Amino acid sequence: MNKSGKLAYNTSVVIVAIAAAMGIGAIVFAMVGADIVKAYMVILTEPLKDMIGITEIIVRAIPLSLIALGIAIAFRSGILNIGAEGQMLMGILASSATAIAFASLPKPILVPLSILAGAAGGALWGGIAGVLKARLGVNEILSTVMLNYIAAQFYTFLLRGPMMDPEELVTGSGTPQTVRMPKSAWLDRLLPGTRLHAGVYIAIGLAIVVFFLLWRTTAGFRMRAAGAEAKAARYSGVKVQRYLVIAMLLSGAFAGIAGSVEVLGVHRRAIEGISGGYGFTGIVVALFGGLHPAGIIPASMFFGLLLLGADMTQRLADVPANMVLVLQGAIILAIVSARQFMNNPYVQDKVARAFSRWFGRPEPPAPPGSIEACPDPSDTPDPCLADDPEALAAAEDAASKGKAPEEASR
Fold first, then answer.
1. Full-prediction pTM beyond 0.70?
2. Owning domain of residue 126
3. Is residue 56 within 8 Å of residue 308, measured between CB atoms?
């Protein structure tokens, strides 16, 4: 299959996968008694009708893109990071504690310091799973999921105890949240009357950094080699265990930065439920974006649209917001299925030959070494012997005497 044919094939697979996901979502909407067309119109168009909606999509896309970039680093390196939710919470705690403790520092120092603290908190939490995987062979899916639970409980404990706003104790409301951060720690708002903040520049900048790290540096090449085939990479001298740990440190750091920009740019104090499930949705964004920064940025915008649309469907289309989670699950299945078809050369060859027969074009030559290229050995002369003059001569002599080629060669 040539390049244009492969592009058309991949495009067709993606279109079919999206249609399948939308069909599954339609079935779910119908089961809850919702108007399918209205529900999809609300999800996909309502947030785009005014500037507030558009900026809210971007606000949700910022942490999603940062988490997805970290997930891409881990997945490309051969380790499955399912712990971005916990790493994000640890980043929020570290960033909040730093901003509150050093409130007297000027803004040009305090903002970067708080973000770096968030990155360190996330990296520490991700590094635990990396070390367990590299040194002890502990399954990273198990360890990261368990660390999510620990981080969630630790986060709740601090917000209801040592880090709770003292005013909540005075008034007796007991709302689990920290004190409001000093203005010197806030990320600037870019548009008056909206929540769009300067974290968008951080997300775009780090997307460029990830691209150059993975595809333009030796370390990135080794990380991708370790993820593609660990045994071959180890045989060629790549320290696979070291790069597994580095990948998890970086992945956790990105999740921590996502939490930092969320708390500094949007909420400006740590509160319960601040993560909003971004850690898990970020995995879907990374897969939907093909584990590449160029795909992750638009994918994060799309899922930001879904998240905002989900909130609107509850009010405008009488559809529970949680039903959009089902749509996300359908999208995951569609992505996985599409990747299987796009990465299978046998299926590609079958499709190319089918189209050639349907449109009356000559079939493309079979790949060297395939069954089609080497037919039944009883055929005379055998095309697979064309590159071997002696074997070909023996086959022709056998054919003239009515013997099998194997007998003639003996």
1. yes
2. 62-296
3. yes
